[in-house]
Amino acid sequence: ALALGGGRGAGLCGRLRPHRAGCPGLRRETGGGGGRNLSSSPRSGCAGAKMLPPGGGLLWLGLVLGSVCASVGSAAPGNSATDALNVLLIIVDDLRPSLGCYGDKLIRSPNMDQLASHSLLFQNAFAQQAVCAPSRVSLLTGRRPDTTRLYDFNSYWRAHSGNFSTIPQYFKENGYVTMSVGKVFHPGVSSNHSDDSPYSWSVPPYHPSSEKYENTKMAAALPRAVWTGQTCERVLLGEMGQQLPLPLAVCEVEVMVKTEIGLVADVATSGNEATCRGPDGELHANLLCPVDVAHVPEGTLPDKQSTEQAIRLLGKMKTSASPFFLAVGYHKPHIPFRYPKEFQKLYPLENITLAPDPQVPAGLPPVAYNPWMDIRRREDVQALNLSVPYGPIPADFQRKIRQSYFACVSYLDTQVGHLLSALDDLQLASSTIVALTSDHGWALGEHGEWAKYSNFDVTTRVPLVFYVPGRTAPLPAAGDKLFPYLDPFDSISESVEPGRQAGDLVELLSLFPTLAGLAGLRVPPRCPIPSFHVELCREGRNLLKHFQVRDSEEDLYIHGNPRELVAYSQYPRPADSPQWNSDKPSLKDIKVMGYSIRTVDYRYTVWVGFNPREFLANFSDVHAGELYFVASDPWQDHNMYNDSQGGALPRSLTP
């Protein structure tokens, strides 16, 4: 049941919230932490009923925003200058700062560059863990992975760690209509199979119907032995990197496909759903998958559907008396690289270079290396018959991977462009904050690695851009457009003027307090230590100091005190050497945790023993270390840890 709620800014179509007498409950997850039933929490509602389905469908959303909000037609035809600012949060999957606005001369990203030209761009923003679910829970709660206790995909923080508030939940409790489109939270256990509904969202989150044609690829690409009951060759790696048979019990775990893309229920038939047509005319579960959109199932792709749905929601909220918080999660450039094939033309292979450091560094500790198992499982990569764990991938195929990643970025850019253009067309650009970021970066051959799953800059550094009407750019005049759609086939980044930039090191944890402050809400207080019992607090810095109105003589580059700043990241490993689950170990298998700090001068990482039952790191049990100096070694290839007397540096590894 739904009821209209009050709160700041609530009007005829006020805050939508679950009615206490009939609100859905919370599934209590077990495994690894001090889980608790949240029914006793005064803010968690009631428990015991089944959670609403996470998709909800267009019909449900139409009923909620059509019928319930039909009366807003008599309200003001838009948010006035005195109203609360709306928020559009765009979260991209696996996007490193390979964008024109970040200085990449090859990438065509005119729409994101145009957004940056009206925004404040943070040059040095870092994720707290380079994998989807832990990073998203961290940035959306404003807590570090050691606080959420989520290092894998297999627990829900409210039951496993603490009943922590999220960014959309905080806005919802302050009178906002909160809506989710696409991949915002990671689907599955880590968001209670509901994208944290109803706590975070006023209406059920939307997921595109064509998403299912991407989520079955990895299962189809697993070795056939996985589901025939035979031993699984080419999966488990020994201490020396040799291939070992995988026990049947572990095979059965693999059949359930505990991957970032969720749980595949029927892998025995999933091979029939592969949608990448190869040169042989057959369907395959490939890494590289440019498609003719007219001939794919449903004739569309997930990110296209997400853009269309987000635009529909903006249209519904245009006349609302309540402010809105709309989060839009885009899948690309996450693998598989399934995108409209015409975007390949933007990146001819002869223009694609290899990574500047495509070899595994000689001084890299084995524990630090990610063997990119999710890439290896793809059929086109399996056909290369690569050695395990270090590869390497042949140079020509490396160029094809990089080509497809860049093509996905340009395809993503068109979707962001259509969304922002609609914001203009609906006259919402003058009343809506826009924030764009990613859950983490992605290695494109640097250090001989692919994908994420490490502490290097290429996997932890992310784009972070804030557009704030009247602060980062003047309010548009009547009839003017801030965000006209730019076609990447016609536009180049050099044609877009740069905006303001900040060079400070910042963390994705700062998203929560910064968005709250920019919207005029009370900034949550800093968290005590420990903070498991505190529902609303923040572990990230407030970045509001950067958003002061610019003086006409002010330099475009904002200087702080960079040597006082630090960004923390971490990554778990199951062993000291690469093995089949090194990239995504389950909590129970974590034996080592790599804690990393990034300053303006260096990146310093120590790999220490970790007790997954107690969630405790033993800093006296050092397994390996890394030290890279930014000025002399920007690509982090020359490990100086053993030349620094044990890596002794003045900074603590724990925040």
UniProtKB/TrEMBL annotation:
GO cellular component: cytoplasm
Keyword hit for Disulfide bond: no
GO molecular function: iduronate-2-sulfatase activity; metal ion binding
UniProt keywords, alphabetically: Calcium, Hydrolase, Metal-binding, Signal
Metal-binding recorded as keyword: yes
Region feature Disordered, mapped onto this chain: 24-45
Cofactor: Ca(2+)
Domain Sulfatase N-terminal: 86-520
Name this polypeptide is given: Sulfatase N-terminal domain-containing protein
UniProt record similarity statement: Belongs to the sulfatase family.
Signal peptide: none
SUPFAM superfamilies, A to Z: Alkaline phosphatase-like
